Amino acid sequence: MKKEQRINYPSSHKIYVKGKIHDIAVGMRSVTLTDTVSIVNGEKVFTANPPVTIYDTSGPYSDGNIAIDITKGLPRLRQRWIEERRDTEQLRDFSSPYGIAGSTFPIVHKPRRAKDGQAVSQMYYARQGTITPEMEYVAIRENLHGGEQTVTPEFVRSELAAGRAIIPANINHPEAEPMIIGTNFLVKINTNIGNSALMSGIDEEVEKALWSCKWGGDTLMDLSTGTHIHETREWIIRNTPVPVGTVPLYQTLEKLNGNIEDLDWEIYRDTLIEQCEQGVDYFTIHAGLLRSHLPLLKNRTTGIVSRGGSIIANWMTKRRTENLFYTHFEDICRILKQYDTAVSLGDGLRPGCIDDANDAGQFAELSVLGHLTRIAWKHHVQVLIEGPGHVPMHKIDINMDEQLKTCHGAPFYTLGPLTTDIAPGYDHITSAIGAARIAWLGTAMICYVTPKEHLSLPDRQDVRAGVIAYKIAAHAADIAKGHAGAQLRDKALSKARFDFRWKDQFNLSLDPEKALEYYRAGHLDDDSGHCTMCGPHFCAMKLTKEMNNCIK
Amino acid sequence: MKKEQRINYPSSHKIYVKGKIHDIAVGMRSVTLTDTVSIVNGEKVFTANPPVTIYDTSGPYSDGNIAIDITKGLPRLRQRWIEERRDTEQLRDFSSPYGIAGSTFPIVHKPRRAKDGQAVSQMYYARQGTITPEMEYVAIRENLHGGEQTVTPEFVRSELAAGRAIIPANINHPEAEPMIIGTNFLVKINTNIGNSALMSGIDEEVEKALWSCKWGGDTLMDLSTGTHIHETREWIIRNTPVPVGTVPLYQTLEKLNGNIEDLDWEIYRDTLIEQCEQGVDYFTIHAGLLRSHLPLLKNRTTGIVSRGGSIIANWMTKRRTENLFYTHFEDICRILKQYDTAVSLGDGLRPGCIDDANDAGQFAELSVLGHLTRIAWKHHVQVLIEGPGHVPMHKIDINMDEQLKTCHGAPFYTLGPLTTDIAPGYDHITSAIGAARIAWLGTAMICYVTPKEHLSLPDRQDVRAGVIAYKIAAHAADIAKGHAGAQLRDKALSKARFDFRWKDQFNLSLDPEKALEYYRAGHLDDDSGHCTMCGPHFCAMKLTKEMNNCIK
């Protein structure tokens, strides 16, 4: 593995905005622009264009002043903040034998846990009226593009206290930069990586994690099911500047050699603690799928398509008993609150095809998720609600409506939804259409889908394609929601386009490398005053300029 | 150039559905499926899956029984229908010297024109109460997937008569299969090809045309601006089974060596006739952009981005006179009606960035398009209304509302719209999001955008990516609109997915080749009962089946 990894963006440099309440510095990316050149009375006149600030998920990788060594892990940004709260203690060792067995990662950080079983979640602090460094950090982060400073630390606190937003921030993942997920904030995107039993190794997964951060992934789920799950995750968490989520059930089953019937509370509990102590920021837990829901599925075209949902449904059927995640949900919350691991309530019954969308099973589970939300909040555990799936456009709105009605304002986190089933190989697009719509309606985070969904595990280029498609959906939603400043980047880029400042246009885009590559495929000089679309004679923007000069 | 060109789809064959009123046979694609295999009492049980019929834009290229020779052109499907109407006559020669100069295409078809200057448009016939073969053809074509036969020939006629739909069907392009564009029919997609002064030759453009038809392009605009415009178009029209559109202004300007000021009615009129006699099915004409609109643009970020719009604005400014397409609009209609060339009223002031969306200039032009629609209809000329462009999601609906309010129900035909400016290199996605939305709201045809929009001319793979993105948007809208039968293909594909009938799944998809390519990248046997996403142990659909067997 290459120890030194860097993320570079053209004509960009890292800036840090200082906190006013806390001693914090929030990293952002500043894009330097060239001058607009116009001809006035035959003379060239240069007008400066101000730099544009961009929300940055690349963490220290894009700061040349910070030493990077993958074998050492990222700087532990939040370590001091957590220690200074004095409500946690460092354990003498990992609680789980799987934690103790450790990994090939060279440095061991002993885990922290809340003192005396108390809650140490951002929700807990918010409810106490405390503005943490994490809260001020995300407030600064959300106020981008020179927009009005509408997001204050106090607003962040109040949204967290109400459960309308979460900051996934496990005390054992101090490397991650705080970020917020909530309907009144910028729409976030999650990316999934992870080896399966069949493919990919540690190196590849760590590289994918950084790759996801480079293109703008806000959170990262490690969905590994193969061997070396703990080890792979250790390398990822120690080197990832964004929150990391998992589905703990997967590793639990690996411990049971795949024997679903052997699943019980003790081994699952052990896995939760193992992962909490490793630093996982949020867990997907399929606690809302009940035995009574199963008969509702009998006419489905594609049954259960959630991996976790199908496993627990299988277990309930074979063991003839209720979902143990449901029956042990309070036990789960008592663990999670001691590490500030958030719970993402999984939608095990999400529809797997257009034909199954919005059926009785799907909404029955959703209402249980609402019930569980209240329980989690009682323990100050931060909650996300997972949503579909495959949903045609005319059935998307009701998903948001039902979620708002039943889940008390907890942030919605959807997979797409895919708006048609007929385009395997292009499901980043079928789902970006649905994701943009549901995000506009208020969904706080959208889980990306790659072109290889339904077909194979994504490689690096698939991850890039999926992330960019979802950055588009999220940004389109931010604009539609009227988020202060969201549109400034569009305007700066379009002004560059009109000025034929090609490089500026590309540098402001979601994927500068791709834009430049396509542009160069047109065999043009970099400074030509037209593009290959119209050719040199009938370029619309060139003609507009000529006309404007005529009118002057 | 390769003379023999074929379009092949896996496990598919061509079927023809006969007309009941006319002696016509409508080509469709039938996809054969394999059996569902289930285990009952330890024995394999095979259940047949019916074939699925798919709307087919590939014409004779996918029929092995029809001889194809690019140097001869396609069979002239509509020749007999047109002749039997006895309202047209074959001219002794082309009316324009540019038509007479001809091209390298080996066969010359003398042009036809209406007798005595009468209208020979599908709208005219519909208003007379006549159901033409073209109308019955599209009625059969629209009733797909075994859905109810809701689209009757009489319904088609009534929609055409009301101007709510058009069948672009120049009497000099009898090679094209009739298709219908209207809000009460399947959403159609247009693709743009065309060389610019800088790039691409005849071979490449003809190949792109077939390529577009292969993937599902419903109509094709030839936007060439370079040399050999007439010649390139001749090869395209003679070999294209879908309607072909142009912007006649482009060729007019090539005749004037690019000197915009020299543009006048006589040379433009000559170009219209030349192209009508060659077989162009619809013209984009920027007749709604008036001198009085230009002051409305002064605060725009990107001015005019329509090539045609910028040319005519330039001309008006330099000549200090009103738009000649507007002042001569009745003259234009008198030409078009004699060939049944439809007019697509261009939106020269479509916004070129999010910041310019829905401004006064854009809507001022739209209301003029509504006025021109009435004039065209007076002459029985079929009308499309072109729409934007760059529009954020929250401003899309008002575009449809305004179009409905001002344009008397004429079909809307939009370019995207793009919902953000910040993703050059991915504008097929930024725009598919907007296109899906506006198509759901009633837009009849969406003009594709390729990944290279704003950057370079598209190559074959860009055309494919653009077409598939737009097929997705159109199909998602068809489902959302509740078009009878639209969802059956999704259901058949999803059933195949649940059955692990991988090949069936791919064969039913929009791009079977891409799906298979991605699937094979997972290194699996073709008949494995799981995919590489979940791995063999925790495949959700496999577990669902096991559970169902348990419950039984």
Describe this protein's structure:
2 copies of one chain form a homodimer. By secondary structure, chain A is of the alpha/beta class. In chain A, 39% of the residues lie in helices and 13% in strands. The first copy, chain A, has helices at 79-85, 97-101, 122-127, 133-142, 153-162, 202-215, 229-238, 248-255, 265-278, 307-319, 324-327, 329-336, 360-378, 396-406, 427-440, 460-481, 488-498, 502-507, 512-520, 540-551; strands at residues 12-18, 25-31, 36-40, 43-47, 52-54, 88-90, 112-114, 165-166, 181-182, 188-193, 219-222, 244-246, 282-285, 342-345, 383-387, 412-415, 445-447. Chain A has an 8-stranded parallel β-barrel, surrounded by 7 helices. A 3-stranded antiparallel sheet of chain A has the order 1-2-5. In chain A, α8 (248-255) crosses α9 (265-278). The first copy, chain A, is globular and about 85 Å long.
Helix fraction bin of chain A:
25-40%
Trace the largest sheet of chain A across and list its strands.
10-11-12-13-14-15-16-17
Describe the largest sheet of chain A. 8 strands, parallel, barrel
Number of helices of chain A: 20
Mean pLDDT of chain A: 93
Radius of gyration of chain A (Å): 24 Å
Oligomer: homodimer
| Tally of DSSP β-strands of chain A | 17
Morphology of chain A: globular
Beta fraction of chain A: 5-15%
The greatest interface between two protein chains, and residues involved on each side, is: A-B, 112 and 111 residues
**How far apart, in Å, are the first and last alpha carbons of chain A?**
61 Å
From the helix content, strand content and strand pairing of chain A, which structural class follows?
alpha/beta
Poorly predicted regions of chain A: none
